[in-house]
Amino acid sequence: MPKVGMKAIRQAQLISATLTVIDRVGLAEASLSAIAKQAGVSTGIVSHYFGDKNGLLDACMRQILLDLYLAVERQRRAADNTPEAQIRAIIDGNFDLTQVAAPLLKTWLVFWTNSLHQENLQRLQRINDRRLWSNITAQFARVLPHEQARAAGGSIAALIDGLWLRMTLAQKPMTDGLEQARSLCYQNLALWLATAR
């Protein structure tokens, strides 16, 4: 009889192991056996909980997206309820220290790349993109006309994604560029808000 709560523990353990293995050897070399070895379990346990490598990658991305959502929500709850403060909180959540651990960064790149070819990951990517854009756009819509709010939301969402990509590919640790990334986003935000006055 399995222990109560063991499924959640095992799944979290295997997701963490997957991030570590992808960081170390890349997706192509991240076999179920390498992941199982990293987690200290049998390959059968991985298959039992996730089916195959695609199922495990899907679960990893769901966890990463949940963690990102929670980071953004934590920032938004702490911010004032003005459009500027809420958009700054969304920016801060996307560049939160919880989002820049090395294994996580490479998995994001794997996710983006594989979402071009795997329908389940493509769907998750669309949800993530849509959430970011719509949350920013909703705040801009409080002070800008509809079409301008949509353009402003798209601008900041693209800037966040572009900065993430550049920092992930950089040779130095991503934490070195966090303040600059936030600052660039804040500057873009200020330019859009200036058109509302």
Automatic annotation (TrEMBL):
Annotated DNA-binding residue span(s): 31-50
Does the record bear Cell division in its keywords?
Answer: no
Q: What would be an example GO MF term here?
A: DNA-binding transcription factor activity
Q: Which PROSITE patterns does this chain map to? A: HTH_TETR_1, HTH_TETR_2
Q: In which pathway does it act?
A: Amine and polyamine biosynthesis; betaine biosynthesis via choline pathway [regulation]
What stretches pass through the bilayer? none
Write down the superkingdom of origin: Bacteria
Gene3D superfamilies, alphabetically?
Tetracycline Repressor, domain 2 (1.10.357.10)
**Residues annotated as domain HTH tetR-type:** 8-68
UniProt keyword list: DNA-binding, Repressor, Transcription, Transcription regulation
Q: Which GO terms describe its biological process?
A: glycine betaine biosynthetic process from choline; negative regulation of DNA-templated transcription
Q: Which InterPro entries match?
A: BetI_C, DNA-bd_HTH_TetR-type_CS, Homeodomain-like_sf, HTH-type_TetR-like_transc_reg, HTH_TetR, Tet_transcr_reg_TetR-rel_C_sf, Tscrpt_rep_BetI
Look up keyword DNA-binding and say if it applies.
yes
Q: PANTHER family from the entry? A: HTH-TYPE TRANSCRIPTIONAL REGULATOR BETI, HTH-TYPE TRANSCRIPTIONAL REGULATOR RUTR
* Record function comment: Repressor involved in choline regulation of the bet genes. Repressor involved in the biosynthesis of the osmoprotectant glycine betaine. It represses transcription of the choline transporter BetT and the genes of BetAB involved in the synthesis of glycine betaine.
Quote the protein name from its UniProt record: HTH-type transcriptional regulator BetI
